[in-house]
Target: TRIC cation channel family protein
Amino acid sequence: MNWALTLDLVGVFFFAISGSLLAVQRGYDIVGSLLLGSLTGLGGGVIRDLIIGVPPTAFAEPVHLAAPVAAAALVFFLTHGIERYSRPLLIFDAAGLALFCTTGTVKALEAGMNPVAAALLGVTTGVGGGLLRDVVANRDPQLFNSSDLYAVPAFIGATVVAGAWFTALPNLATVTIAAAVVFAFRVLSLRFRWRIPHAKGQPRRGRASE
Amino acid sequence: MNWALTLDLVGVFFFAISGSLLAVQRGYDIVGSLLLGSLTGLGGGVIRDLIIGVPPTAFAEPVHLAAPVAAAALVFFLTHGIERYSRPLLIFDAAGLALFCTTGTVKALEAGMNPVAAALLGVTTGVGGGLLRDVVANRDPQLFNSSDLYAVPAFIGATVVAGAWFTALPNLATVTIAAAVVFAFRVLSLRFRWRIPHAKGQPRRGRASE
Amino acid sequence: MNWALTLDLVGVFFFAISGSLLAVQRGYDIVGSLLLGSLTGLGGGVIRDLIIGVPPTAFAEPVHLAAPVAAAALVFFLTHGIERYSRPLLIFDAAGLALFCTTGTVKALEAGMNPVAAALLGVTTGVGGGLLRDVVANRDPQLFNSSDLYAVPAFIGATVVAGAWFTALPNLATVTIAAAVVFAFRVLSLRFRWRIPHAKGQPRRGRASE
Model:
C-alpha cells in the first residue's frame, strides 16, 4: 500500500535522525553517523520482517536507503553545537516510535498474525531500532530508563491498532490517529515527568543515560 | 509435542525471572522489568527459530507471552531488597540454560539439522537469551566471565541430546536427564568455583560482572 | 561454488582470530575465546543468510565450525603476552572485513538482489561480525571509531563487486582484487591515520577504544 510505504519511510527518516544525532554527540564521523542512523532507522523493520518471514524491505526496496542518507546529510550540514542538546534526539525518536509501533502492527496483521502477536511485534518494531542504536553506541538503553515512559506509549499504539482489527482492517486514518496518540503521550510524559512504579524497597535511580 | 511445549514455557519462565531480577537490580521500573524478562526469556528461542527457518514460537503461540508476564509480576510483588543478592538470578538463569540448551537441540534435530549443527544451535539457544539480557543491560556478559563455567554445561547438555539422536529420537526422559545434568553441573561449578585454563601468560581477572 | 566456500572459510578464520584475540585481551578463558571467535567469525554470515532468506551456512555446513575452533586453538597456544598488542587484532580484522564485504555482496547478487541492496548487504556482512564482537565484549565498536576508516573500505569493496555485476557475474579474480583493495586501503588508512570530516563545531575525540 502506498500510504504504508510513505509512513514507513517517514518513520525510518525520524529514527535515522535520532541515530545520526546520537552519533554526532558521541563524536563519530560522517560515516559513523550514516551507519548509526541506518541501523536505528532500518533495524526495527529488519527485525520485524525477519520475524514475519518476508524479505526485509530495507533490502528489497532500496528507496528505504534514501531516508538514512538524507538524515545523515541533514544532521551533518545543519548541526551547530546541537550535540549539547538532548531534546531534538528525543523528539525525533518519539516520532519514529509512534510510526513504527503502529505500522509494525499493521504489517504483522496483514501477514496473518493474531492480534496479540501483532501488537507484540508492533512494540518490538517500535523499540527495536532505538534499542540497537543504544546498544551499539554502548549507552544504557533509553527503553529501560526508569525516569521516562518509552515502552508504554508503544504498547498503547500497538494495542489500539490491533484492536481496530476486530472492527475493520486498520486504515490510514486509524494508524495516523494511533501514531499521533503515541507521539503526544511520549512528549507529554517527558514534559511532565510521568513515572511508573518500581518494585518494593528498590532504590530509584535518575536518568540512566546522559 | 506437549512435553516439549511445557519444557519450553518453563524455560522461558526461568530465564524471564533472571531478566526481571536483573532489571530490578538495575533500578528499572515494572515495564523495564517486563521487557528485559521477555527479551531474556524469548530471545534465545526467537534466534533459534529464525535460524531453523520457522515462525518464532514467541509470536506464533501467544501463550509464550504469559511466562514473562508472570515472571515480572512475581518479581515485582515478591522482591524485598532481593536486588542485593545475586544468587537467585544465578539459579534461575541456570535452570533456563539447562532447559533451553536441551530443548533447542531437540527442535533443531526435529527440523532435520545434522547433530553437530543441532548441538551448536542448542548452545546458541541456551546462551542467547542471557547474552541479549546482559548486552542490553550494558554489563559484561556472564557467558564470558572467566570465573565461572557457563557455556561448558550447555555444550555438555546439547551434546548428550544430539548423541541420543544416534540411538533414538530424544524423548522426554533423555531431555529431562540431560537438563538435570546441565543444571547440576552449573550449580556445582558455581559452588566449588570450577575453572578452565587461560591462554599462557595472560592476566587472570576476577568476576567480570558485579 | 568451491572458491566461494574457500574464501568464506578463510574470512571466518580471520575474523575468529580477531575475536579470540580480543577475548584473550579481555581475560576470557579458552571457552570464552572460542565463543567470541565463533560469534565474530560466523555472526556476519548468519545475519547475511537470514536477510537473504537461506539457512545460515554456519549451521547448514558444519565445516564452518572448524575455522573458529582452529582460531581459538591457535590463539591459545601461540599467544605470549600478545594481549598487550592491538596490531594483530587489527590486521586479522582487516582481512576478515576484506573477504566478507566482497563475498557477502556476491552471495546477495547470486540470490537475486539488486546491486544496491547487494552492496548494502555486503557491507552489513563485513561489519556485522566485528560489531557483534565489540558489542558483546562491551567496548565501543571499532566501526564507529572516528580515528580510523572502517566502513569506507567495506563500501568500496562492496561497490566494486556490485559494479562488476553489470559487466559479468563476479568471479574469483574480481572478488580477490576487490578484497585486496579493501585490505590495502584499511591497512594504509591505519598506518597513515587517514580521517574523514566531522559535523561542524563538533568536538573531535581520539580512539574510542583502547
User: Anything to note?
Assistant: DSSP finds eight helices and no strands in chain B. Chain B touches chain C through 36 residues (CB under 8 Å). The mean pLDDT of chain B is 85. Residues 2-191 of chain B form one domain.
